[in-house]
Amino acid sequence: MDEVQDLLGALRERAKELNCLYRVEKALAVVSGSPGSIIDEVLDAIGPGWQYPEICEARLLLDGEEWATPGFHKTPWTLSIPITVQGEVVGALAVCYTEARPHEDEGPFLKEEIRLIQSLADRLGHWVLYRKLESIGQKWREIGSAEARDTTPSWQILVDLLRETDEALYVRISRKMLNHLCSIGLAEAQSMLCGIDADHDPVNAGTGECNVPERHIASDHPLLVSGRPFDVAARNLSPEEIILRVQRWVQEDKAGIFLKVLDGPRSTLIELREALRRFHKIAPNGVGLPISTLKSVRVALSQRVLTEQLDFVQTAKDHVSVEFFRQIMDRIVMADDSHGKLGGKAAGMLLAHQILQNYGTKASESEEEVGSAEKARDSKVLASVRLPRTWYIASDAVLDFIAYNDLEDLLHQKYKSIDEVRRDYPNIIRLFKNSTFPPELVKGMGAVLDEFQGVPLIIRSSSLLEDRVGSAFSGKYKSLFLPNQGTKQECLEALLDAVAEVYASMFGPDPIQYRRERGVLEYDEQMGVLIQDVVGKRVGRYFFPAFAGVAFSRNEFRWSPRISREDGLVRMVPGLGTRAVDRTDDDYPCLLVPGKPDLRVNLAIDEIIRYSPRRLDVVNLEMNCFETLELQDLLNEVGEEYPMLTQIFCVREGDHLSRLISNLFDPTGHALVACFEGLRGRSEFVLQMRETLRILEEDLRCPVDVEFAHDGEHLYLLQCRPQSQADLVAPSPIPRDIPAGDIVFSADRYVSNCRIPEAKYVVYVDPDRYGELSTAALMKRVGRAVGELNKLLPKKQFILMGPGRWGSRGDIKLGVSVTYADINSTSLLIEVARRKSNYVPDVSFGTHFFQDLVEAGIGYLPLYPDDEGIQFNQLFLNRSENLLPELLPDFADLADVVKVIDVPEVTEGRILRILFNADLDEAVAYLADPGGELVSLQPAAGEVHKPMDQFWRWRRQMVDRIAAELDREKMGVKAFYLFGSVKNASAGPASDIDLLVHVTGDKSKEKELLDWLDGWSRCLAEFNYQRTGYRTDGLLDVHLVTDKDIENRSSFAVKIGAVTDAAQELPRPDEG
Amino acid sequence: MSDNNGYNPFAMAQAEFDRVAKGIGLDSGAVELLRNPMREYQFSIPVRLDDGTTQVFRGFRVQHNDACGPCKGGIRFHPQETIDTVRALAMWMTWKCAVADIPLGGGKGGVVCDPHHLSPREQEQICRGWIRQVCRDIGPNRDVPAPDIMTSAQHMLWMLDEYDVIHGGHYPGFITGKPVGMGGSLGRTQATGYGVVYTLREALKELSLEPDNTTASVQGFGNVAQYAIELYHRLGGTTVCVSCWDENEQISYSYRKKDGVDLKELRSVTDGFGGIDRKRASDLGYEVLKGGEWLAQEVDILMPSAIENQITGDNVTEIHKRVRVIAEGANGPTTPEADKVLKDHGVFVIPDFLANAGGVTCSYFEQVQSNLNYYWELGDVLGKLDVKMTSAYHDVSKVARRQKVPMRDAAYMVAIGRVASACRDRGWI
Question: Which of A140, A711, A771, B150 is deepest in the core (most CB within 10 A)?
């Protein structure tokens, strides 16, 4: 029972305290009363709030004056708290007990009471400030009324007030007035200026005619202090103008202080934040400042906070507001002395969102106007595009982190050889994860987690170099998902761990290599970090967005002539966008063209199903991890709770796909296909996407690539950057001076950007001859021959040309029957549409396996040889020596249908170069000398071609070494050959080394040989890993052939003495 | 639209017809009538595209012969459609319906267009436009269209709706390939696979083979193959090998279990397209062999149920001596070259257009049910299918024995003979 009594007692005390606070608040809220009566009221309210009200008294000291309750006198049991206004002590509030009472937390007082008196003192401080401001306001109001009475001119009151309160400002304004008067040509003012400085020649001043520096006018010149310029002004300007000017100058002057902080290279982010707050009070969002000043404020802020990249800043200044920065600044985690920025990714995302918001709002406002353009109406949907909740870690925090853990050595890491960098990287990750963060950063991130309680997070890199034009750095630095479940301590540890890992990725081999190639290694890279909530919804035990993906403003994968480049392209998947951003080899994203949302890549039901996403990525909240699920399993589990179910999925009923048109549908147990039917047409999503891409490309002045997610209610923008080169091949200039005889073909319809610098082989299926084949079986054989050639010719070094649609499933007459596997090694697929008696057959635009072509990066071009102005060198294609009979003796009968041309062989070492320019809608293929500089029209954005040399050269050296070391007698080797990419000098980082060994056939020797080579193979694989990061079990691909094989020309024996890509025999060491 | 030179599908179909007609000594008037379509329609379909421009599409309908009943055949959307292709396919439909002994004739139609470049609304306009052009010459009692290349159930429903609107009533029997619940028939998925095995069962009886004691190897694991295996197992047979295409590796594999494939188990590791998960199958104890191995198994029965041209002159010799029957579930799986070898080896081939006639028979059932506006239970559909397939088989088999020709030739003979008789009975020839 005692416990209950104690509890009740405590509660009673709290009630009294609250009551006291309430009464004080009520008293202070009175606007009209005299200060004395208000204070009396406050003091009366204080006593009853204490534990022993009957002996409690209070006193307030303020600006030298004293108010107190009658019984107040200083006793040993007194609490006194200073009252401060804007950091200055202006008085004190005291409470005392007049008699002794039992000891509590502090003397006889409870700790709650100490907090109470502190709150009261704070509140009184605010009240005092308010009264002061109120009295200034009063004075200003009096100016107005003074003018009406016409005693003292109102501007005079204003100027006097200025002189009293801030003399320095007064002098500056006086100076500005003088300058103004001179500038409007008042002789009186000019002579005054001359008076200040005898040498001043008002006529020639500032013209730079004289080569002596102009004299400086002291800022405290008595003439300025005296206020004489105002007297002159009074005679020549209207009072209204003087007031207006003075007011504006005062405001500008205050903004100037802010600009000083902003421009000061030494001012920290925190100082900047404080300055912004003050600036906001003077001129919320810069209202009333001249446009030029505002612009320079926005430029300076963009440079300080976002990025220094000039073209970015140029665009940003027109879109971002000061208020925008003020809000961001409150969400930055930083050290006290931070000078960092938010980094490229954050900058791109923020600017893009701001641009969309501006358009969206403008469109909504202009909607009422009569006859507003349709485009503007469409832009309205942009106002609802959101950004995820985001916190930022300033980019230089990584340096603090490094310094705090004494890891400065790592800053030289970038100059190490790439092998070393690769070797060190795992250790650096470990090292970073075991390091501690400076306490202020830990505190900052703790605060972030308070806001993001229990919401899955994504931690994304935002380095200074990221997302700049020309170095998009896509995927080079890390982004990590955090389920953010568990106790706060656990979550904080996971967050710190993730940030450390993102930091460590600065020292990874990929970004360093990339920076080296781009020539930005010396740039002082810093790593900003974004902490965002994952866009999505909790569904069952999972968390994920309804759908997400990536969108490009330029479409380089057009499957229909009705789609133009500007129509854009969206790759999207259900769940987290990871599966749309990265290409997965076992699944396909859904493709949608925002400009032509009704055209579908896939039509037949089996194609639709095959090329629809089957898996999705989610955050598993229970297991606290990131997971990939089978879509069907998830739907069976969560059913209709899946957000936007009806828009994303169709139900398969036999061989019919039905759209879902109501929520009545229970998806469990049904076969659902994620074909996004409900989002096509003129859905809000399509409009949002189309407008987003259009406007961002327009305003950022370059094609853009945007990541997005949709949580079922809103579309979120996650990233915006220049469309990367991997997706956007720069258009090539089309040379105009190619000798006519060198041109093999040209095209001027439906040209995408693509580039085949050096094709060595052409496989040409003659459309006329193909059409003349008498049986379907013969036509099938053509397809098989192409499939064989695809296996035989060196990868990506040949192009395929043939009639109509490759891979036609219907009438075989219309195109060579192949599957994707039959063409997957080609670099370019050309569909030739020759005019038939009265019509030109349509080409397929690679539709049938279009998505496979896209994922494999195979180029596509339709050719219309019979169009006017088109060149088509039939002679070259038909008359050049045909390798087919030699390459594929079994298909020799098709030699007049299928031509295989070894270009260097028939042109004395030249190659076929094919250049595409989608902007001009032109392409040309011509014979050229190999090598030579290839110009790109967008050099800044040009993908740097990796010097392939590095990959084959050492492989080749190693092969020579193996050949030299090989004990041929002991291991039963008759001859030793090299073929494939190493022989052709086209090996890439993941290429293996193809060896052909002619053996005697002695099994025991053979085993010894294979064991010996296996050792080399593993060793070289490790070596290759160190250099390139590609992990393989072995690097040697060894093929053994015997005399019999060579005789029968079976298996790889055909490579010996083959017509193309023949295996090269390596000499014995003694022949050396 | 046709080219005069080179490969012409219609000329090939005519040549094939001429060969068989000669073989059965067909009346010259009948030959003249049957080598060409009875009626052909060619027309323009103007469509206002989404961007406001108008495009005119070329449409066709060929009615090869309707002596046995209303014409039946698909509508194709294809950018390089030619009248000759359509003619050839229409003739083929006549034989196909006739061999199954269903009271329908042969037709085919199409539109020269590429749906990849057309929005659904534009495609709908093409469908409706097509119907408006020929609505007086087609119908449940005249000519019954169905889905084909690049057309789907959706296109059929648009066409049906347009037809209904024009004629002011409901005519679900006007078109087939509709979804269940919208005038479609149950049993469509099972029909072809079951049909293959109904004929196989009869063949085994004739060869005095007990299904219980037989083994089979199947190429393909799609709809046809899966249902064929299902029914074959119910008859007591054992499947030891199944091959299928691996979409990821772009190569096919054969999966063998010598003591018999467990269909349920194998289906559990198969995707919606009949692709078997290699690793999981291997974990279940299936031997993973090269794609072509299905052909070389020591079994009694081969069921090529995937794509055309699989048994060729090159690989026909790999077929094991034990093989007695080949039931062609796929279209054209055996090349003529291979056919000759099989004939010499005495392998009994149930030809494709008899073995896989279950599909067209089920379409016929759909039409019957639609006309009655009364829809049967699954058991009814499959029961009636059995009756139809069994009797079709015996009709062909009788001719084969009597004329001492292979089943393929016999099937052709039966088909052509039936159509010719109907023409005669109607007094056309």
Answer: B150
